[in-house]
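Section 5.1 Outputs to date
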Amino acid sequence: MKVLFVGDASNMHNCLADSVRRLGHEAVVASNGSTWMDTRRDINLLRRPGTLGAVRYVLDIMRALPSMRGFDVVQLAGQIFLDLKPAKVRWVLDYLKRHNGHVVLSALATDRVYYDACHDGHTFRYSDYRLGDQPSPYVNSPEYQAQQQDNWGKPFMKQYSDYVIDHIDGVVACLWEYYAAYRPVLGDRVIHAGIPINTSEIAMRELAEPPRKVKFFIGIQPDRTVIKGTDRMHEALKKVCAQRPDECEMAVATRVPYSEYIGMMRSSHVLLDQLYSYTPATNALLAMAQGLVAVSGAEPEYYELIGETENQPVINVNPLVDGDIEAKLNWIIDNKHLLPLMSRSSREFVEKHNAAAVVAQRYLDFWQQIIASKAPSKGLSL
């Protein structure tokens, strides 16, 4: 099978491509390298700043399109899979649809379908946009305006989203949230595959005994702190570390390259990640693969979807409960004797549910199912 991945996010498509190749198939990645993460790609589609950067970007896409033909499957990184306005992305989608076999969407970021689910009042108890029946801090933040999030609710984005949905053959969701949003829209054409993690390339840091001091680690993306709840996590962590300086310490990473970021995790015991998530995402899973304990989102709905009833190692934080983050961090410090066991459980969880080969096989099975369902029926011989 020949597979083309268009776009990437947090190295997800590149990781999948590596595993697809190891499983005996061809794979090409055309992406911007997840911007500042600078992840690997075969076709570089990084947009540089300014007018000149925009012109060059369009020229790069036009030059790349002839080499983006003849694939059995095209896997798109979200509805906006290029750094272009929807009308231009739609033109590229039409081109890819005409010149390749099947087009499948990776639901891995905010789009109109997820936006609608966040605002319908029943799909989620909380989200990036709502905490219960109240707007989230993100909605009232400068981030929200800078990222033009209001656009998702406008008619032109609904028209574009509807067009994409009408022109794809299926959706693979990487988080429970995206699965929950897309399932009512596309039914059986949606599966949950999870986020792939290259566990074979990530060595676990064995924790032989409880540490004298618990070292917490948090990564901060300046333009995404409020939407992910990193601001609240960071403030809670600073508070706990100030109250218990002899028992814990923290390390903070801000906008460092992917390889350096992974290395910075290794000397820590606990990672703080997303607050408004039902699911541990890439950052948490990468940490867990190294043996860190993740403080993130891991709601019952997620564990039910993946069928996990025994090993549930993520420390789930509830954004609707005041003081819950501090309470969970203090619990970890009070129970640091459990960290060696929790560390092993975290690694085992990722190996079972998110190892790159496991997730890639789910994609392959889904692609083959789509190809089989779309194959022309054979007429009867007379």
